[in-house]
Amino acid sequence: MRAPLRGAGNCATSHNDAAPGIEAAVPPPWPSRLLAGVATPYGDATRLDRVPHLATHGSLPGALPAAELVALSENIGLRGRGGAGFPFARKLTAVLAAGRRTGSRTAVVVNGTEGEPGCLKDTALLLYAPHLVLDGALLAARALGAQQVAVGVTRPDVADSVRRAVAELGPLSVELRVTRLPERFVTGEGSALVDGLDGGPGLPSGRKVRSSERGLGGLPTLLSNTETYAQLAVAARLGALGYRRVGVPDEPGTLLLTVAGTRVLEAPTGVPLARVLEHCGTGPGQGVLIGGYHGTFLSPAAARTVTLDRAALAAHGAVLGAGAVLPLPEGTCPAGEAAAVARWLAGESAGQCGPCALGLPALADALEAVVRGGGERALAAVRDRSRAVARRGACGHPDGTSRFVASAQAAFPGEFAAHAYGGGCGRPVLGALPLPGSAAPPAARVPAAAPDEHLVVDWTLCRGHGLCADLAPGVVRLGPDGYPQQSAMALPARMRRRARLAVRRCPALALRLRPAAG
């Protein structure tokens, strides 16, 4: 059973496998909109059923024509809150145009999946304020004349909450369904989400077709994030002028953040990051990862001065993405944290293209080799593997992963150099960058080798590629002719995984593992 946890102010706190709770014991320093009415004086979070939802937010205005909804979205500068930040008005316009051009019906999709361990904001909304999200989705559906609204989620408690909210609405003029999808990082990618909602395996298609052209059931589809629809519902009630009373002029309103992987916080756009961290009881530490595991690290100095809006973050090469704010405390090893995340991201591959299925594990291998003291060769391998996967994937996962690795290296060059050349930092990996299950450092996951095991070369097959020396340094030593110096090499326990990798990747299939007595 998922137990609610507690937070501070209007922070909802949780581990990723628990239901966020919201505490009102400390008055929030800014007003809540999306989370209004959720906090209680007793320090818990309360789910807003239909009646308390209407008492808190009021009724929606009558159905808005499409032109008015587009104008409202433009006037408030509403953008997608799931990562890409695409202007919502342009999405609406594209779906309308595609529907008119093809003469077909349209559909609306709510992306309520959160495959990233550091994000909980959509979970908080759908658990505690599901009617606000449904209000926005139904408002858009009526404006588009859509006959289907599909909500995609991954957690069973979230699915239950949304289904209860749908039942409270009673009969509707549109089909409104909730589908639970596999919980993995790529589930939220647009084509993967649509594929899952249509009964497929929920994998990215690899085709550059926008959902506004061909989405759910092949129909022009408005696809956006949970928070985006909730913001639309708030804006419809407040009007453009009322909505713009908080936030910065170019990006008005509020935003939802997940701080340190445990706290969901609503704040006005333009709020100083330092104030958010202070309110949630933390600081910038060694740096702050903004935008999640496809995001960018800010230095402590930047984190103390930057404000949370698109223009300010862009000056540091960062975007807010899905709203994850992950500070690295002083006591953890940045290089080990980054390597653990890179390994997890490699495991979250859809396995449909070479850059994902092969390139990301190889990148994670290279980064782990750096952490273990692999020297200049390991550092060069990270650079090479990053270049090899960039802009070549069927979806954005390889690009995002290589960007994360590059940002970590740029933010902590001394840490990676110290590890690569054998010194290390002496600090443990605390799991400050949260991952499902154990966040043990990479070295802890290396299986022990059988005693007296050898890596053996078949001379009838070997062609002197030399890859084995790169993959198993210290085990394989090349002679002046570029071939291994020995046909059978003793294998230390710590090198078993590297040797297995060399066996798998030898272009000539000339390597194998053999017990010493064999």
From TrEMBL:
Pfam families with a match to the protein in the record: Complex1_51K, Fer4_15, NADH_4Fe-4S
Record's keyword annotation contains 4Fe-4S: yes
SMART domains membership: NADH_4Fe-4S
Cofactor(s) of this protein: FMN; [4Fe-4S] cluster
Gene3D superfamilies, alphabetized: 3.10.20.600, 3.30.70.20, NADH-ubiquinone oxidoreductase 51kDa subunit, NADH-ubiquinone oxidoreductase 51kDa subunit, iron-sulphur binding domain
Ranges for domain NADH-ubiquinone oxidoreductase 51kDa subunit iron-sulphur binding: 335-379
Keyword Cell cycle tagged: no
Signal peptide (from-to): none
Ranges where the record places region Disordered: 1-25
Protein name stated in the entry: NADH-ubiquinone oxidoreductase-F iron-sulfur binding region domain-containing protein
Organism in which the protein naturally occurs: Streptomyces ochraceiscleroticus
Upper lineage: Bacteria, Bacillati, Actinomycetota, Actinomycetes, Kitasatosporales
